[in-house]
Amino acid sequence: MQLLYELARRRDPTLAGGRVGTCRRGSRKRGDGPDQRKTSAIAAKVRRDGRLVTDDDVRAARAAGADDKAIHDTVLIAAMFCMYNRYVDGLGTIAPKERELYKEMGARLATEGYVG
Length: 116
Hints:
Elements: H1 2-11, H2 18-21, H3 34-48, H4 55-63, H5 68-90, H6 99-112
Helix pairs in contact: 1-3, 1-5, 3-4, 3-5
């Protein structure tokens, strides 16, 4: 969850509230151990350029307790967020700032669906 929050926060620094908003950088809560800090460092490199991830980064994540699945999932999620962000940016999509609008959209989707 910390990884997802960090990636989203960098995209939208105004994120707050909800489950995502409860994660904070540097917290000592469950799920934010040394392995997650090392995989978050890998995700940050993937965000800039996947070719920046080195063997040393992977070794450090493994030494901190991350297994190959955690490392793989970290790279996959970070790369997917990058792709989604480019897709949305390329389409010129905007995200409303008013949180209340999302409740209205959710209610409309629940009753009318996407095509309605």
